[in-house]
Amino acid sequence: MITKAVVVQDVVKAFGTGNKRFSGLRRGKRDASAKSEPVLAVDHVSLTIDKNEIYGVLGANGSGKSTLIRLLSTLLLPDGGTVTIFGHDVVRDEREVKRLLNRVSVEASFFKKLSPIENLMYATRLYGVPAAKARKDIRTVLGTLGIEEDRFTRPVEQMSRGMQQKVAIARAFLTTPVLLLLDEPTTGLDPRSKVDVQDFVLRLRREHDATVLLTTHDMTEADMLCDRIAILDRGRIVVEGTPSELKEQSRTMEDPVPTMEDAFMHFTGHSLEEAEEEQTTPVAV
To answer: How many CB atoms lie within 10 A of CB 83?
Structure first.
């Protein structure tokens, strides 16, 4: 019986290079004098995620979070190391892996001229959900996420970004993935929409026995949702543990009740905002 949903072993992903020689590559940082120099976006990362676990990856923009998600979802191929999803190798068993997962990114993709119902009917059909069941479930799920019924049949392009993100979450829920990859799903959402999406993630795990990998730079969100957290800095995991463990390890006499933001600063040596100012990458990672 497979108990590990995700196993990542010594995975490397470089941008700006055409070969697999990694010596001398800069880690997660580029300056104006090195425009052609390759960059390690994911730098020898290893981690395991248990079945039914919500696993968080914290890091600044450019730390490698989204690149890691794309490697797991088969959108990118690793330059080194291996990734398996419920025992299936993402390179050799790409088709099987795709059947097991769904991905929600910070910029959800839709047929913008079509309505939420039309987009969701299309998605559920691709996953083999019977049409009659899909029609019923779509209305229920959209309503649960706080989308008004009169918006169900309007073009997606007329919806706010927060509403579009809710439709993306609904799409993931309706296709009942075994593994849900959430790449900063609540970035830019209003507080009410954030809570709706967070509640829905917990419901998906509870009702469908799903495993969730969540990348975020929202420390409070990670603390609330995640069973374990890895902090990623310049493509490398610098620490991993439960939220309580990470906060306890960063406790000091001056700060006896640290937050996840305090833990981030403790393990990386800088705040999230400082990291985002310092780090630039050749592509969106």
So the answer is: 23
